[in-house]
Amino acid sequence: MPGTDTHRPGGTGRRFKIAATTITAGTVWLTLAGQAQAGGAQTRRVTVTQEQVTRLNIKTSRASRGVIRKEVRVPGEIAINFERVVRVVPPAAGIVRDVKKTLGERVRVGETLAWLESEELTEAKLDLYAKEIELRCTEVRLPQAKAIFENTAKLIALLGKQAGGEELRKLDGLEMGTYRGQLLTAHAAYLAAQTIHKREANPPTKGTSNGSVLLDAEMALKQARTALYAIMDTARYETLTAYTAATQERQLAVFNAVAAERRLRGSVKSSMKTMKRD
To answer: Which end of the chain is more exposed for a tag (fewer CB within 10 A), N or C?
Structure first.
């Protein structure tokens, strides 16, 4: 039979040719022609009897191209890969009401593993709710305190430079709390005292001014000016203090809310009292 070239997989890459040359009544001749690693050609002959051919079920056929695969079958056992197993332990005492997963199941990040009921978790969540309510209250008080501080400062600046009624009316509707009334009342008293003082200091007819009346007018003007400036200073201080306190209160509320949330998450990985894989 004509031979065919092929390659032996996984070996040294030696090319070999198998040719069945002669089958006689009692003998089968097989010739293996190959190339040695040293570069020289070698020929080896194996002689088998007809009995061996029959017993060993030796067959000959034309060689063809193909892929030789090596398979090894051994007994094995399917087991859990403990390097990919995570043991989740709740850091808070409680009662497990429902377990969603069993050992060996695949889980995704954020997937619920179990439901846990715990008094400690309940207290932590209620504390978080209380801190969140406090934070929302400060978010209302802080803008209000800021508006009163800024608007009162604008009014004080206008009163300080003796602005007219037209400029003062531009501030109508702006939030100032009780300071608008206090400042405008003190400013009106100051203007009245100033008018009386001017009238007594410059009478329409010379020699008609009363010295004691002029002295009283000067005293009243000084008192009105002092009262106005005192109210201005008080308004500045109180509005700034209130604004600063509201700012600090909000900062503290934010800190407390974050701390409460971390305490809750330290006990459970979600706000619904579930244990979740981190």
So the answer is: C
**5: Cβ contacts below 8 Å, ≥ 6 apart:** 15, 17
- Rounded Cα distance between 245 and 255, Å, is 15
Amino acid in the structure at residue 48: V
Supply φ then ψ for residue 70, to 5 degrees: -105, 125
Please indicate, yes or no, whether the overall pTM of this predicted structure exceeds 0.85: no
Phi-psi region of 51 (alpha: psi -120 to 50; beta: other; left: phi over 0): alpha
Going from the C-alpha of 225 to that of each of 156, 193, 228, 244, the distances in angstroms are: 14, 9, 5, 28
Q: Which of 84, 131, 123 is nearest to 104 (CA)?
A: 84
Closest CA to 185 of 153, 221, 224, 213: 224
Instruction: Find out whether 80 and 238 touch, Cβ atoms under 8 Å.
Output: no
Q: ∠ at Cα 176 (174, 178), nearest 5°? A: 135
Q: Which two tokens stand for residue 207?
A: 């020699």
Put residue 102 in one of left, alpha, beta given phi > 0 → left and psi -120 to 50 → alpha.
beta
The amino acid present at 10, given as its one-letter code, is G
> Which value, in Å, is the radius of gyration of the alpha carbons in the chain?
52
- Structure token pair of residue 114: 């179990």
User: 């949330």: which residue's tokens?
Assistant: 261
- The tens digit of pLDDT for each residue in 199-243 reads 877 776 665 556 788 888 889 889 999 999 999 999 999 999 999
